[in-house]
Amino acid sequence: MFDLMQYAASPALIEEERIRTYEELHNESERIAAAIDGRTICFLLTSNTFASIAGYVACLNHRVVPVMIDGAQHADLLREMLAAYRPSFLWIPEGRLADFVGKTPTDGSDTPEKAPLADGTTDYTAVYQSNGYILLKSAFPCPFALYDELALLITTSGSTGSPKLVRQSYKNLLSNTESTIEYLHITEDERAITSLPMNYVYGLSVINTHLCAGAALVLTQLNAYSPKFWKLFNEKGATSFAGVPFMYEMLMKLRVLRTRQLPTLRTMTQAGGKLSPELHEKFAEYAAEHHVNFVVMYGASEATARMGYLPPEMAVEKKGSMGIVIPGGRFELLDADGQVIEGADEVGELVYYGDNVTLGYAEKGGDLALGDENHGRLATGDMAKRDADGYYYIVGRKKRFVKLLGRRLNLDELERNLKAELGTIDVACAGKDDLLKVCLTNEALKEAATEYVFGKVGVSRGLFQVEILPEIPKNASGKTLYSQL
Questions:
Q1: Residue 13: which residues within 8 A CB-CB, separation 6 or more?
Q2: Is 261 exposed, middle or buried (CB count within 10 Å of its CB: 0-12, 13-18, 19+)?
């Protein structure tokens, strides 16, 4: 996957205090791989650090299957996943060691208490340690067979901590990486800052594309809303930034881009959900004003990462659109009867075809032997329309609808309209048939939200609730966790 030595002397990973070359990354990844016995499963607790990326490269280049997990994942959820997949190896931050091999004694003795793992064993041995990470080997090899083309396992959007994982193949990764490099024009002189976690497909695709193109990554775990993040961006000469809708909403609210000079910024990409047309337009205009490319993209874990993109020269004209299909892919729209929609501006379910469509899901170790269940076709579950010029617009989720006394209500559309009406980004809409729930974080907006849903949308008061929450639940990449609502 990664031919690092062709760029040996070039900068690969730019840390706050030092620069790591491609040769350094190659050498460290080879040392990690040398401590892993053959093709097996390795849990990788990720962070935007040299060690984490080196472990990932080691796995992919040596046919070890990494399970990409948030480095801050709660120990209880980790134990559920350990029980489901029984990995032979764990590549983890040193600070998480107690969660796997022992805890500080509570009885005053010198003997550590064993941390009770879900499978009943505490038999992990440290076999390699470097750069703040440690490689643990289980005394019990992974008992599950692995499909020969299985490359990695990653959580679906919104399912952080769940044993349900997406099975990605080597072909999936290579296809999507090459396609993204092509349409984003990523070259060796690019420097992308790590604004997203690498256990999220969008963040991981930034890493894959830049390492395959011989470009550099500016490593940080700082929040993109922090002034220190943008200070680092300028100091290291970063050229691109990637964000999900919530991040762009926050950047607009805090006026981050308007109040900062970013002379090296060339490209802003957005994916991970639909940006409102109003916000899309504002960032497209900012980009045009500052000679920056603003690229709205469309993707899913089940498609490795990307399926569609809006060429930056169309960002203003086609505001609200997620664009056209990526190189090597194909879109279809299907009506309620499963027939292909040929005309313009008709809404149907979006179906994607391409080599980046993943193998399927895994929910337990026995699923790792399964082959390709999707055969290059993904029914996205998104409802979309195509304009006369061939540009696609997502209008909602197939399942993000409720029926209120027989009337079908699009929850995504309602949520966007409420954000605009109330002037806040802290809104989420959920519900089931005959009950709509509108969630806010600001008590002062409750009456206005109620009047909007009742007065303008025309929903009877008995069919909806407006609830005030301390915060809208989101995953590490900023996506709303509707299941928790």
A1: 19, 20, 25, 50, 53, 216, 217, 219
A2: exposed
Q: Are residues 319 and 421 in the same domain?
A: no
The answer to the question of residue 355 being in a domain is yes
User: 143, 160, 181 — which closes off a domain?
Assistant: 143
Reported as a single tens digit per residue, the pLDDT across 203-232 is 999 999 999 999 999 999 999 989 999 999
Q: Is residue 6 part of a domain?
A: no
Q: Domain range spanning residue 432?
A: 401-484
Q: Across 87-91, 141-145, 456-460, which has the greatest mean pLDDT?
A: 87-91
Conformation bin of residue 163: beta by default, left when phi > 0, alpha when psi is -120 to 50: alpha
DSSP string, 111-177: SPBPP--TTS---EEEEEEETTEEEEEESS---S---TTEEEEEEPTT-TT-S-EEEEEHHHHHHHH
**φ and ψ at 270, to 5 degrees?**
-140, 135
Tokens describing residue 45: 């607790």
Residue 357's CB is within 10 A of a number of other CB atoms, namely 26
Dihedral of CA atoms 282, 284, 285, 290 in degrees, nearest 10, equals: 120
Give the residue-averaged pLDDT of 156-169: 75
244 shares a domain with 175: yes
121 lies in the same domain as 192: no
Which domain CATH number covers 323? 3.40.50.12780
The reply to whether 154 falls in a domain is no
In a domain, 152, yes or no: no
pLDDT tens-digit profile of 366-418? 999 999 999 999 999 999 999 999 999 998 777 787 877 666 788 888 998 89
* Single pTM value for the model: 0.84
Q: How far apart are CA 145 and CA 67, in angstroms?
A: 15
Does the pLDDT at position 103 exceed 80?
no
Q: Which residues contact 37 (CB under 8 A, 6 or more apart)?
A: 88, 137
Residues 289 and 194 in one domain: yes
